[in-house]
Amino acid sequence: MEQVKRRDVRKLSLEELELFFLEKGEKKFRARQVYDWLWNKTLKNFDDMSNISLATREMLKAHFSINHIQVDQMHRSQDGTIKNAVKLYDGKIVESVLIPTPKRITACVSSQVGCSLDCNFCATARLKRMRNLHPDEIFDQVVAIRDEAMEYFDRPLTNIVFMGMGEPLLNYANVIQAIDKITSPEGLGLSPKRITLSTVGVCKMIRKLAEDEVKFNLAVSLHSAINETRSRLMPINDTNPVEDLAEVLKFWYQKTQKKVTYEYVIWKGINDDIRHAKALSKFCKVIPSKVNIIQYNPIDEGEYQQADPENVQMYINVLEQEGVVAKVRKSRGQDIDAACGQLANKHLQE
Predict the structure, then answer these.
(1) Same-domain check for residues 13 and 143
(2) HEC states along the chain?
(3) In terms of Cα–Cα distance, which of 141, 72, 85, 153 is closest to 337?
(4) What is the mean pLDDT of residues 168-197?
(5) 36 and 92: one domain?
(6) Residues with catalytic annotation?
(7) Do 310 and 176 sit in the same domain of this protein?
(8) Domain end: 65, 85, 112, which one?
């Protein structure tokens, strides 16, 4: 427990680290050297900081810890997908996923331990939200997947999606700080155009994203453009109805000039009819957008079942007739419970 009591060095800004070194009678430039080791070279311990003297390293160890994540368990799917069970400094677990395709390798990362939302079709929603992830814990998930991409595929990480456990806009400050580190030349240097943040549609926080003029992409888990159906699927729609979502997305596009992606699952007997397809097509005209129709991944034998192929094709036809770009996304990693909606720390229950 002693490590937890010391302050995590990555909670300090560069300026705070410089002040620490000056107060200890050290040269100011040492702070930038340490900062580079932490964020650019992604070092996990002070002992490996080869251009820092032994005495200085010992001083750092006396005052600080590096509360680095650990990949506690790793599962590999038949399709190449890798799911990590990530242990945090306090013993809590989140999951992240490496998704390989011929053209890209994507890191799907979590933003919260558990989730406070109650989306009825999602396994993560069955976990209580225990806490928000810190910026360094989000950053570390990306680093772990980046390293796995090189080790197992000999290819670099190309994309990041915030589609793991939790609602990223309910951990706004930490998620933004993590993205800043991921995209900064002093960090991983990944282009923000390669990052997509997915939200259930927290309207006031989408407005804040727009006001902050973020450079990354936005995806919205929609699943229905009809309030009655969407509220049944996603209770947050009661306080963030489709009409409010449409208005805030107009503001998003006005400020960023970025189209939005709608993530959409079609369920048998719930939203698989022409009425829902036409409502989605109309909603897609609010701002420039595209639709990813996502294959449903069952989490039990409950009421949610994947729609029949002919109903999915009906959706595609309706959207294409209105000039809406729509693609069916085949889920990956189903055999290791790594697909969309399946992250639920099942290994803890085994």
Answers:
(1) no
(2) CHHHHCEEHHHCCHHHHHHHHHHCCCCCHHHHHHHHHHHCCCCCCHHHCCCCCHHHHHHHHHHEECCCCEEEEEEECCCCCEEEEEECCCCCEEEEEEEECCCCEEEECCCEECCCCCCCCCCHHHCCCCEECCHHHHHHHHHHHHHHHHHHHCCCCCEEEECCCCCHHHHHHHHHHHHHHHHCCCCCCCCHHHEEEEECCCHHHHHHHHHCCCCCEEEEECCCCCHHHHHHHCHHHHCCCHHHHHHHHHHHHHHHCCCEEEEECCECCCCCCHHHHHHHHHHCCCCCEEEEEECCCCCCCCCCCECCHHHHHHHHHHHHHCCCEEEEECCCCHHHCCCCCCCCCHHHHC
(3) 85
(4) 97
(5) no
(6) 95, 340
(7) yes
(8) 65
Q: Which residues contact 39 (CB under 8 A, 6 or more apart)?
A: 10, 139, 181, 184, 186, 187
Residue type, position 37, single letter: W
168 in the same domain as 30: no
Domain boundary among 65, 89, 105: 65
Listed in sequence order, the residues at least 6 apart from 19 whose beta carbon sits closer than 8 Å to its beta carbon are: none
Beta strands at 82-87 and 70-76: parallel, antiparallel or unpaired: antiparallel
User: Averaged over 212-225, what is the pLDDT?
Assistant: 97
Token output for 47: 């002992």
Tally the domains of the chain.
Answer: 2
Same domain flag for 163 and 26: no
- Considering the domain architecture, whether residues 266 and 296 belong to the same structural domain is answered as yes
- pTM for this prediction: 0.90
Question: Is the per-residue pLDDT at 348 higher than 90?
Answer: no
- 50 and 191 share one domain: no
Range of the domain at 51: 2-65
Segment 122-160, tens digit of pLDDT: 665 566 668 999 999 999 999 999 999 999 999 999 999
Mean pLDDT of the chain: 90
| Bridge partners, 70 (sequence order) | 87
Report d(CA 110, CA 86) in Å as an integer: 10
CATH of the domain at 11: 1.10.150.530
Percent of the chain with pLDDT over 70: 88
